[in-house]
């Protein structure tokens, strides 16, 4: 067993607030050996990033380390003054942050930034530093490093930028790298490449890596050791295989169970039951008052035909000089009554644009959208008002989709008021009923959105969407901003809606395992085109197009999950 | 109210001595301006209460002829300076607040419109704003003042002067409101709650007023406070130049103009006290605005 490069002993972080001492990190201890990758996993607010920041000495005041020790290569570093900490940071501890856009300076070329860092830490002269920088770019597999050296960050794609950040972190040959959600902002395919690179470099340079993530798939694929954190404390840690294969703590168990599997389709998502935060969703009560008399005439609720959207990429006074970027290119599909149709693809593939066109948020450039036999694209104002009553949307970011200056009651009441569904005096009662049905406390209507957590906000969104009793629901990445535990709750609610209320859904996601669980049929989009449409199980088992195959291969899997467990889950589901 | 007293902004206020002091000064000034008729020892505009013999009485000293004593002295016509300051403060504050309200309303409306609608509407409004910014605002105010004065009949001029002043300062100051509101609107417009409201079918006007406006108000509040200080100074400048409040309704600026005539003949108090009042008022409001900007900006906290 080799000596550990970094060891943390009983680390506790304090934040003094007006309402007493708050401890985001409490009594955390772990070691990292050279070449080892330690995953730190937990939901948001579990203190995983705060631990990383405490190690590199980047705690924002008034947060401070109140107890515990941090040892780096046999030297205690938590008590050093700011100046010495700064010297260690970057030189002995490298950092990789979530957003590659903000961790590079847009005003300097990639080469300048690398050379500056190398000179600062290693004291090489200009030409040696440049040679080293190019070698590093080559090492992180940037093609044509000699040319790329002179380019600016905006000329790199997201994944390449993150690789440049890795190169920057490696400049000074640090002994430890703290990577805080390094792939969360990236697409699946690029995420896999970046994680492979981190893995390889850790081995090759014998660097210890702390990988902070909320994604169990990343943990399973990449790490050697794993620390599971909950509410600032370590609940369980040990070798990854052991923790994932045979978790002993209840929280770890439920966390692993909550990860959607691509292998099997379950009836319901297993929920994280730890911490007792599960709130009930009263679907039966909701279904009782639901008006389901209308069914579409033909059995097909929504038909999209040759849908095209172009955005102006270069404006000009003369129409003939303008240049356009085609975001959605002749997309056609149709949704049967009561079906959940999935639309998957990487960012920029145009899936959200399709949703927004159906939701009348973007004008349609070409093609038609037909809803229940009526062409939406040719509707007059009255027709559109009728159409809007029947479709609703749930947005990705629960923090921006609710107006922060409106009370929750007003937010949910807005569609009722606008469509004049109920006489005014009855609205308040209906709003309370809706909020109660989605599992919110009885005083929720008078509170403001910021008083709720992400999962609760998404429930408010659902209540708003259900207010008009729509027939068609568009879900645009409804859970990608949420933790796994809450994701399961929200997805189960959506499943219930489809099952009990017979809602037809367009479900947009980049997360293939989730799509497998949610959808009846799936369409795969790439660069604005619909590549293939298949029944879900067929798509996962026999993808027709090469692109779908590629996406499926890159999907992180929890292979540690044994066959027996899958069978068990299947039986439970 | 309970929520306000418990909020972070109020907590930051309680713990900032500068904010508390400048708020106290501002409140004191506003109160004394509003209650001027009750506080002021004399009514400086009632000729019956004036005694020319009391002219040029230094502060806190009995007059040589009548033996009357005045807290801050008297001017050439025997008017009590303290009373004129209180009445002047009234005019100054009224003009300042009204002008800022005008500028704010106009700026918010145009900013929301250009930010939300975009296209040609935005281009025209924002270019007009740019053009106006190329002139010093005091020049714009003088121009508007001149035109307005030219079109009002002579007999109404003195009566209308205050309103013309408000119009002039208000119109010269809408640009920064419009710019800030437009920027904030662009940010808010792209958020999903606006998309949700559009999906419900809300009209653009409803979305602008009910959804976006409440979310862009906090920067507006900050500018309004700082603008208030600037508007008070602008009014004083105009009045000092003789194109503002008429001598029958003197504002602080008018008082300073009258006072500066006596500065070199030794009657310093006629200038000094109105000037100090203006300084204290503008400083307090300005500091309050500065503090508000920091307190409402989470990134600076």
Low-confidence stretches of chain A: none
Number of helices of chain A: 21
Q: Quick one: how many beta strands of chain B?
A: 0
The chain pair with the largest interface is: A-B, 29 and 16 residues
- Low-pLDDT segments, ≥5 res of chain B: none
Number of helices of chain B: 13
Number of strands of chain A: 20
Quote the average pLDDT of chain B.
Answer: 85
Distance between the termini of chain B: 23 Å
Question: What is the rounded Rg of chain A?
Answer: 26 Å
Structure, explained:
The complex is a heterodimer of chains A (573) and B (301). Helix content of chain A is 37%, strand content 24%. Chain A has 573 residues and is α/β, with parallel strands linked by helices. In chain A, the strands form four sheets. In chain A, strands 6-7-8-3-9-10 form a six-stranded mixed sheet, sandwiched between helices. A six-stranded mixed sheet of chain A has the order 16-17-18-13-19-20, sandwiched between helices. In chain A, β19 (521-526) and β20 (529-535) form a beta hairpin. The longest helix of chain A has 18 residues, at 188-205. The radius of gyration of chain A is 26 Å and the shape is globular. With 301 residues, chain B is mainly α. Chain B has 13 helices and no strands. The two termini of chain B are 23 Å apart. The model of chain B has no long low-confidence stretch (mean pLDDT 85). Chain A binds chain B through residues 18, 356, 359-361, 384-385, 388-389, 391-393, 395-397, 400-406, 414-415, 418-419, 461, 464, 468, and chain B through 11, 191-193, 195-202, 210-211, 214-215.
Summarize the structure.
The complex is a heterodimer of chains A (573) and B (301). With 573 residues, chain A is of the alpha/beta class. Helix content of chain A is 37%, strand content 24%.
């Amino acid at each position: 067993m080799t000596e550990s490069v970094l060891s943390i002993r009983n680390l506790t972080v304090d934040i003094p607030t007006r309402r007493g001492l708050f401890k985001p990190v409490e009594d955390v201890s772990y070691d990292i050996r050279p070449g080892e990758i330690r995953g730190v996993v937990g939901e948001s607010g579990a203190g995983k990033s705060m631990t990383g920041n405490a190690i590199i000495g980047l705690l924002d005041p008034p947060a401070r380390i109140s107890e515990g020790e941090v040892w780096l290569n046999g030297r205690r570093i938590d008590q050093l003054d700011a100046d010495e900490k700064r010297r260690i940071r970057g030189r002995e501890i490298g950092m990789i942050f979530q957003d590659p856009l903000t961790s590079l300076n847009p005003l300097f070329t990639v080469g300048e930034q690398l050379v500056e860092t190398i000179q600062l830490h290693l004291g090489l002269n200009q030409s040696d530093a440049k040679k080293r920088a190019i070698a590093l770019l080559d090492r992180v597999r940037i093609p044509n490093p000699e040319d790329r050296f002179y380019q600016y960050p905006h000329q790199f794609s997201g994944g390449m930028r993150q690789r440049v950040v890795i190169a920057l972190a490696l400049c000074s040959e640090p002994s430890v790298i703290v990577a805080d959600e390094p792939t969360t902002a990236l697409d699946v395919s690029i995420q896999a490449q970046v994680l492979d690179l981190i893995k390889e470099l850790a081995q090759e340079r014998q660097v210890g890596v702390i990988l902070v993530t909320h994604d169990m798939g990343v943990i399973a694929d990449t790490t050697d050791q794993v620390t599971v954190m909950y509410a600032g404390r370590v609940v369980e840690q040990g070798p990854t295989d052991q923790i994932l294969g045979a978790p002993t703590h209840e929280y770890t168990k439920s966390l692993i169970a909550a990860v959607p599997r691509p292998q099997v389709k379950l009836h319901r998502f297993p929920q994280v039951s730890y911490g007792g935060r599960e709130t009930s969703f009263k679907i039966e009560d909701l279904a009782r008052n639901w008006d389901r008399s209308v069914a579409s005439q033909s059995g097909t609720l929504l038909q999209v035909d040759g849908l095209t959207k172009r955005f102006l990429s270069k404006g000009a006074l003369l129409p003939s000089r303008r240049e356009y970027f085609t975001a959605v290119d002749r997309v056609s599909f149709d949704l049967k009554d009561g079906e959940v149709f999935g639309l998957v693809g990487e960012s920029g593939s145009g899936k959200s644009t399709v949703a927004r066109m159906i939701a009348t948020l973007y004008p349609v450039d070409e093609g038609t959208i037909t809803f229940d036999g009526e062409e939406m694209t040719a509707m007059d104002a009255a027709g559109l008002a009728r159409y809007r009553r029947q479709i609703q949307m749930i947005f990705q970011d629960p923090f921006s989709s609710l107006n922060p200056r409106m009370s929750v009651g007003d937010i949910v009441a807005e569609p009722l008021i606008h469509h004049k569904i109920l006489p005014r005096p009855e609205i308040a009662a209906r709003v309370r009923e809706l909020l109660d049905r989605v599992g919110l406390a009885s005083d929720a209507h008078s509170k403001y959105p910021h008083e709720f957590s992400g999962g609760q906000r998404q429930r408010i969104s659902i209540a708003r969407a259900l207010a008009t009793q729509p027939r068609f629901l568009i879900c645009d990445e409804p859970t990608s901003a949420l933790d796994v535990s809450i994701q399961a709750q929200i997805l189960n609610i959506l499943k219930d809606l489809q099952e009990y209320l017979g809602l037809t859904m367009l479900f947009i996601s980049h997360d293939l395992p989730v799509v497998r669980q949610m959808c009846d049929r799936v369409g795969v989009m790439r660069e604005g085109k619909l590549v293939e449409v298949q029944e879900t199980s067929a798509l996962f088992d026999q993808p027709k197009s090469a692109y779908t195959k590629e996406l499926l291969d890159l999907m992180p899997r929890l292979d540690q999950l044994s066959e027996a467990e899958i069978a068990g889950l299947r039986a439970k589901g | 109210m309970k929520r306000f007293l418990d909020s972070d902004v109020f907590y930051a206020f309680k713990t900032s001595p500068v904010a508390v002091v400048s708020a106290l000064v501002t409140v004191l000034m506003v109160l004394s301006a509003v209650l001027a008729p009750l506080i002021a020892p004399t009514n400086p505009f009632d000729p019956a209460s004036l005694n020319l013999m009391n002219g040029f009485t230094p502060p806190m000293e009995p007059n040589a002829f009548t033996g009357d004593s005045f807290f801050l002295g008297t001017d050439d016509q025997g008017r009590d300076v303290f009373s004129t300051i209180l009445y002047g403060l009234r005019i100054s504050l009224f003009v300042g607040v009204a002008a800022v309200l005008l500028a704010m309303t106009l700026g918010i409306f145009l900013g929301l419109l250009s930010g939300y609608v975009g296209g040609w509407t935005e281009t025209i409004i924002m270019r007009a704003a740019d053009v106006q910014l190329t002139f010093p605002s005091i020049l714009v105010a003088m121009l508007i003042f001149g035109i307005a004065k030219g079109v009002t009949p002579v007999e109404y001029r003195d009566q209308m002067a205050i309103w013309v002043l408000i119009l002039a300062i208000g119109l010269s100051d809408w640009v920064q409101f419009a710019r800030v509101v437009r920027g904030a609107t662009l940010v808010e417009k792209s958020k999903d709650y606006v998309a949700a409201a559009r999906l419900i079918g809300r009209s653009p006007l409803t979305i602008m007023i009910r959804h976006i406006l409440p979310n862009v108000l906090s920067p507006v509040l900050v500018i309004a406070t700082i603008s208030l200080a600037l508007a008070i100074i602008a009014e004083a400048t105009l009045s000092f130049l003789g194109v503002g409040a008429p001598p029958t309704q003197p504002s602080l600026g008018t008082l300073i103009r009258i006072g500066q005539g006596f500065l070199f003949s030794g009657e310093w108090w006629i200038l000094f006290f109105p000037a100090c009042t203006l300084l204290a008022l503008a400083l307090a409001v300005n500091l309050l605005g500065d503090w508000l900007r920091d307190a409402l900006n989470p990134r600076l906290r």
